[in-house]
Amino acid sequence: MVFARWYNRSLNKVWGFVEDRTGMRKWALRPQPQFTFKPSYWTGAFVVNAFLYQVVSGALLLLYYQPSTNTTLTACGQVVGTQSTAPAAWCSTYYIIHSVPMGQLLLTTHLYGAYAMIFLMFVHFFRGYYLGVYKAPREFSWMVGTLLLLMTMGMGFTGYLLPYTQISYNATNVGLVLALRLPTFGPLIGPFILADGTSQGLLSRMFDAHVLLIPLALAALLYAHIALFESHGIAPPASSDPLQRRRFTEKEDEDGVPFMPHIFYYMTKWGLLYVGVLFGIAALWPWQLPTYVGNTAAAATVTEPDWYFLWLFKFVDFQGVTPVYAVGLTTALIVYVLFLPFLDRSKRTHPRDRPLFIFIGTFLLEFFVLMTVWGGETPGVAITPMTVAETIGPLAVVTGAVIALFHWRYRVSYRRRLAARASPLSATYPVPAARAAPGAVATAEAKASE
Ligand code: HEM
Description:
The structure is a single chain. About 65% of the residues lie in helices and about 0% in strands. The protein is mostly helical. It has a domain at about 40-240 and about 275-350: Cytochrome Bc1 Complex, Chain C. The protein binds protoporphyrin IX containing FE (HEM). Protoporphyrin IX containing FE binds near residues 43, 133, 141 and 222.
């Protein structure tokens, strides 16, 4: 308690000093309503935090990493301790792990940090999906977010090849076969990624994309994403009221909590906790480097991507599914997510009012988890159509039935609540909402959805 008071007073003093000399409050982000002081309102900021850690740790790794497939470097033999024929990219990674002070910790936090960023991004995505934050006026925020999602997956894909291990090389090749078949996008990026058709060309291009091009695109999209967020204000809680106000002016938000220093400190606290947990996990379970590309002495490796692409790899294991189907599924998913704000047109944002879209989202989430676990357990093992039908069919039916039941239950209790609010006497003898006076229903709807 005493410490907390001392801590707050010291922070305020530091902030007063900085504000006095910079006038930062003016160029800080807008204030926010008090109710947003919950982690669930800042899922996007957690992703930003993870991204920042990736930039810092990646810059440090760049000091040692060599994006080269050259196998005749004498330095490589010295590093590995034998007359090694390992490519320089793999050797420099080996060097980071074994010779750079804290190198293994740094590399492991960069790798686990990427997993965390992708995981947090999916949390941010599904929160927005379930709470309908993509509805007017936030359609463009959602669409820019979808592009951020693709870029983040692109970061994972390009980074996977960089240590130049046999397993990452195999998986990248399978991924490339799929990516290059994407309509419009595939032919566009094909010549860039494949370069002159050599392994060195591929590694160089993946490296350029990973350390420069995609981060630049990510930063530009993030700028647009946050500018849109600034212009609308934060999305209010999900509601069944079709007339709910969903845009707030900066003037209205002035009564809220200032971003500087309050929200900034709040986020810094979470940011530091994130880095601490990341380091803790990395110290307990440091990453081990698999064998390098072209090591003929090693046992044959399975082709396995990182966990966030396992679902797609498993899909190709389904008998009768060609890469064209896998690409078709991915394209359909991207188009669905991108244009979701224009597909789900109702003005209500509460999940109980959007059973169809809640069903699609929940089924996709279950499908993603199931396929990821399946892909991790039995990578490369073919799956018959019968097994697919027996596994995925019941999942869809049960999910549909449960959501339909919840929707029905909610509608019944919601209508009762509306009627009760429209006429206090009717609490004992509920009146159907349709029979209450129209004005009373509109006001009661607004109250019931609070
Ligand atoms: C690299 C990935 C992403 C980053 C760094 C990011 C960052 C942010 C930040 C900082 C906010 C402000 C509110 C908050 O902190 O939650 C935000 C809001 C938002 N994001 Fe993202 N985002 C990312 C991906 C996505 C994705 C994949 C989607 C959906 C397809 C999305 C949709 C939205 C929407 C609709 C809002 C407005 C929400 C509100 O007003 O409460 N974002 N994002």
